[in-house]
Design brief:
Pfam families: HTH_5. It contains ten helices and eight strands. By secondary structure, the protein is an alpha+beta fold.
Length: 237
């Protein structure tokens, strides 16, 4: 039985609609959402670890992971007898972050829903997100280190990146630099290859450390001083 309005639609368009529906369906379950949010830290997790995060049985988590694999949202890595799951790529993380930004509009008093450390600084797959990331991005824009549309690092920006040891990938297949909507701040932070390079530089310099098993990151004393010196970010705690 044909659907009204699709009689003259080519096969490619119909396929796209089905593909979009499949992805939306894969994200529609709260347990799968919790699994995807855990994977937003950019690391690989076992089914047992993800079952604990989602508060479901391991066997149930395995079923959800199979669905996420089928939809192309996650990938599975085998290491000896163990299997690890991670997001399929930065584009999936960007999709999830945008959905979070849209969803928070429908939550009453959203500012109280996310823990303060998570809102302050966290990973968005492979780059920094949260209040501090938004402040950093605003500073970069004000100093003209990034073009107005957020798509390119300027020469002044490249000089800054080099000065802190942030290495950009000239052959990246992802966006070299882009705005990424921060779901908790409702403003933009730095995404793309540039965002990933900045995060790695901060980590290599010892300016931040990851909190094992969580998306939160913590800035060290050296990091707090460096961010104030380079970006004017003032830590009150």
């Amino acid at each position: 039985m044909s659907m009204p309005g699709l009689a003259n639609t080519d096969d490619g368009a119909v396929s796209l609609e089905h593909a979009m529906s499949a992805i939306a369906s894969a994200i529609s379950d709260p347990s799968r959402v919790r699994i995807l949010c855990a994977l937003m830290d950019g690391r690989a997790w076992t089914a047992t670890e993800l079952s604990a995060v989602a508060d479901i049985a391991t066997s149930t988590a395995s079923g959800h992971l199979a669905r996420l694999l089928q939809s192309g949202l996650t990938v599975c890595l085998s290491q000896g007898r163990h299997r690890y799951y991670r997001l399929a790529g930065s584009d999936v993380a960007c999709l999830l972050e945008n959905i979070m930004g849209m969803s928070v509009k429908h939550i009453r008093t959203p500012e109280t829903r996310a823990p303060l450390p998570l809102r302050r600084a966290r990973t968005c797959y492979d780059h920094l997100a949260g209040e501090i990331a938004v402040e950093l991005y605003a500073c970069m824009k004000a100093n003209h280190w990034i073009t107005a549309d957020g798509s390119t690092i300027t020469q002044a920006g490249l000089h800054h990146f080099q000065s802190i040891g942030a290495v950009l990938n000239p052959k990246t297949k992802r966006k070299p630099c882009c705005d990424c909507l921060d779901w908790s701040e409702r403003r933009f932070h730095l995404g793309g290859d540039a965002g990933a390079a900045l995060f790695l530089a901060f980590e290599a310099q010892g300016w931040l450390v990851r909190i094992e098993g969580y998306r939160e990151v913590r800035f060290t004393e050296a990091g707090k001083k460096a961010l104030q010196r380079h970006y004017g970010v003032v830590f009150t705690d």
